[in-house]
Specification:
The radius of gyration is 16 Å and the shape is globular. The chain is built from 8 helices and 2 strands, in the order H-H-H-H-H-H-H-E-E-H. With 178 residues, the protein is mainly alpha-helical. Strands 1-2 form a two-stranded antiparallel ribbon.
């Protein structure tokens, strides 16, 4: 997947999420089905995820190479990254619940600020994708807590899917159950 296609994909997935958020009653921000994240927690999770990736991509390339090494396999395509992620989620459902158990519940007064931060982090990532070379996208690796080491291109493709994944959760669970 080219950089331009990845950027378009990030934009599309985030636009779908932002459009959905615009349609939701503000009071749904702090409510959610029992044992499920609220809308605010979903957005906080996405902001945190994007921010961590943007921070990692701010390190000098030599540091990433030294710390995590270089890719020694074929680059995975988008469909493979998505399939692997869904499999890992199913295999590690209990681990994922434990990992995400203590996520703060953002209050309604922080809604606009968090949504704005998500916009900003998405734009930053798109900017960074434009600036990084294809060679670095395909050779430098960084760790993902569930997926293990991934190339930068793969983790950015995963980020687009991750946004879609959480948007689908919001659409299916929260709009029906509330």
């Amino acid at each position: 997947m080219t950089k331009e296609v990845i950027i378009d994909l990030l934009e599309e997935k985030h636009k779908t999420l932002f459009d959905w958020l615009e349609q939701q009653p503000r009071e749904n921000w702090e409510k959610g089905p029992e044992e499920k994240w609220t809308t605010g927690q979903q957005i906080l999770h996405l902001v945190t995820s994007l921010q961590l990736l943007n921070n990692a991509l701010s390190y000098p390339r030599f540091f990433l190479k030294y710390k995590f090494g270089l890719c020694n396999r074929e680059i995975r395509d988008y469909e493979t990254v998505v399939k692997n992620y869904q499999e890992k989620l199913e295999e590690n459902e209990d681990k994922a619940k434990l990992f995400n158990k203590n996520l703060k519940k953002p209050v309604l007064k922080n809604r606009e600020r968090l949504i704005n931060r998500l916009h900003i982090q998405n734009r930053k990532l798109q900017y960074k994708v434009r600036k990084i070379s294809d060679l670095n996208l395909d050779t430098l690796i960084i760790p993902h807590p569930l997926m293990g080491k991934m190339t930068i291109r793969e983790i950015i493709m995963w980020t687009a899917h991750h946004t879609e994944h959480h948007t689908n959760i919001l659409i299916k669970k929260y709009s029906k159950d509330l």
